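Allow me, if you will, to draw on your knowledge of protein folds for a short while. I have a record of one protein: its chain in single-letter code and its fold written as discrete structure tokens. I should value your view on which stretches of the chain appear to form regular backbone elements. Thank you for your consideration; the sequence and its tokens are set out here:
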Amino acid sequence: MSLGKVVWTLCFLLVLGSSPMLLHDLVAIERSVRVTHGNGIWYDGRLATALLRLQLAIHSVVPDAASGAIPATARNEMGLLLRDVLDQVDAPPGTGGSEWRPLVADREAGMVEVRRALWGIDQVSRLLDVDPAAFRRIADARVEEAIVAHRRVSHAVMDRQNALVGVMQGGVDAFRLELLCYGVGFTVLLLSLGWLMRSHMLSEAGFRTSNRRLMDLRDDLTVARDTAMRAGETKSILLSNVSHELRTPLNAILGFSEALSSGIFGPLPVRQAEYVGDIHHAGQRLLALVNDVLDLAKLQAGKLELWEEVFDLKELAAEVLRDAEEAARAAGVTIGMEPGTGVVGVLGDRSRLRQALEKPLSNAIKFTPGGGRIGVSVGRLPDGRTRVTVTDTGIGVPAEDLGRVFLAFEQSDSQRARRGQGTGLGLPLARQLVERHGGVITMSSEPGVGTAVVVELPPSRAMPMGVGVDPPPARNLASSR
């Protein structure tokens, strides 16, 4: 027991023995002083700091530039921070007596919202390895809800404490008048009250110091968060600039190789013609890769525009199939459109949705052995969603690798990676394009049986064909985030 409480107890007994009439006022003052001790202030400060650290960790979720995966250290740090915050939420300051019960009730009622928001982060933690951007978007909203809820709780508790301090001050003023009749008892009790008030003022000063430190820490964390965001933007700008610089020499290589192949400078020997063909083919592959990198950088920076129009998605899928027939014949596989409904009108960017369909179809041709079959179906679901499904009888993807196929620069560790050539940009780019249309893309697969990639667009994208529908103006995705 502190010296202040010892002095208070002695004075309390002295005055109580002198005049039972003072009992009621003394009890009220003693309870008010107890309720205003600093346990709750210190607890709120530590919890606010932990929430800010968790918010910074969420903002720092950026896939590794080389592998596209979330570093293990980042995942571990995220888990530790989340557990630390939950432990603090579940361990409020001790009650210290019945006088604390109103404050405990206020705090517990508010902490329900904080727990709910933090549980929401825990429930989407599996997205760290599947979709870091979606995880960061959802988790950032949840941690902001937790911070706002905690701030509301701490303010409510502080208001109640301030009200109790006001009650205490009023009780002290009335008590001083009564003590005029008690001589020595008044003097001793006044000194003890002064001691306790001084302790309370020191506690308040400590709270102000802690609050200043928390503000400084918040500013530091804000600077760190902004730095991390600028680093991500710099990466996208660098990719975009490098891609632009590569396009010019690539176009020259493709143009000259095509001119040589066409015989414009005279016929070439057979071997030289083969070499020129190899150069042209390799240049086309590299140009396609550069275009994919450039599109992915634009998507991640939110600068890719959608030029929307109403068109028949089934007709677009048929065009993609026709363009892929030559590659399918070379691979020895059969491709075709599955029977289905007639016209399937949608509102979207025709060229970008074409890209989104070409990527899974190209993968299906690449990873389906000779003699296999690839089918594409397009249809409208009863709830208004539009679905495109690309199925194949290829080698399939192991279950443990399904979470990686939509990550940039990632490929399955199975025989798919050894069998095909690519950088792992196709499906991640398709996912970004579909998501910019408000849709989702998923994959299901069984090794040795085949794979199915499903693209779904929301009901808002479904449009009737044959009715005059004016397409909306081009929309910059950066403004629609």
